[in-house]
Amino acid sequence: MSGPFLGVDGGGSGTRFVLVGGDGVVLAEAAGPTTYTPTGGTALVRDVLAAGVAEVCAAAGTRPREVAHAFLGLPGYGESPDGTAPLDDVVVEVLGHDRCAADNDMVCGWAGSLAGADGVNVIAGTGSMAYGRRGDRGARVGGWGEVFGDEGSGYAVAVAGLRLFSRMADGREPAGPLLDVVRDHLDLRHDLDLVGLVHERWGADRGRVAALAPLVGRAARAGDTAARRVLQDAGGALAELVATARERLGHDPDEVVPVSWSGGLLADDVVRAALLEGLRGRGGRYEPRPPALPPVLGAALHAAALAGTPLDDAALARLRTSSTAPPERGHP
């Protein structure tokens, strides 16, 4: 079939939908809330997918059953022994056919950033992980969740920033620009109001906490050296993910491995520079590549490949220029 191909990129902060023609033209786009299953379970995923698929198909003047093939990247997919089959069933139910596949949203990041080519993509959004491909072989590193993993993620940076804020407010750490950045952004009358805001009003919501990560970058640009160290530490943690994925894929030390990135945190120059510096210090050769496509277009590109009708070079070039979507999410 020559399309349309449906791509869905789920994430901890939101879900994006796109329909792409076989010629690489973006036919329609839509957005919805998170499909993160620990937040609302399979019922939440069904509702978000049903609404988003209906919206994007209506905008393109088509129906779900006319989609040639679909790929849906869903956060948490494959991470629960009892959760994968129900998600697969939901996808088929929403589309009304089985010309589809679902996997973890890490695949969207890889397929988009490297345009489906071999290499390693590192994701630093709400969570973090690296995913690489070498032929038919794939390797995932990280993505263990915020309780005991997700090093270098937007959530981890935000928590480190809030911890730094608390230390500055107490006087355990020299005061820096981060103090006023957080106070002004959250409109805090008293520093301890932060406790009630995060725990009571937000319920320590993962996405809302992670969305504070840009404040650390703002403070670093204002000269806060402690905030800058938080970002540099995040970049170093992400470099470890990439280097480990390279090892698991079996690359020789002298092989040049393409590496790209996705997720809002890596839009920060300090984090990205620390990532690349960390790779240089770990041995092995890498070819850094700015993301070719945003993850949601990577999902559509992967759908076409799974259908056995991959986009040709002309269609891929058109795809790179036909969407107004940013290459990376605007926040973690």
TrEMBL record:
<dbReference type="InterPro" id="IPR043129">
    <property type="entry name" value="ATPase_NBD"/>
</dbReference>
<dbReference type="GO" id="GO:0016301">
    <property type="term" value="F:kinase activity"/>
</dbReference>
<keyword id="KW-0418">Kinase</keyword>
<keyword id="KW-0808">Transferase</keyword>
<feature type="domain" description="ATPase BadF/BadG/BcrA/BcrD type">
    <location>
        <begin position="6"/>
        <end position="303"/>
    </location>
</feature>
<dbReference type="InterPro" id="IPR052519">
    <property type="entry name" value="Euk-type_GlcNAc_Kinase"/>
</dbReference>
<protein>
    <submittedName>
        <fullName>N-acetylglucosamine kinase-like BadF-type ATPase</fullName>
    </submittedName>
</protein>
<dbReference type="InterPro" id="IPR002731">
    <property type="entry name" value="ATPase_BadF"/>
</dbReference>
<dbReference type="Pfam" id="PF01869">
    <property type="entry name" value="BcrAD_BadFG"/>
</dbReference>
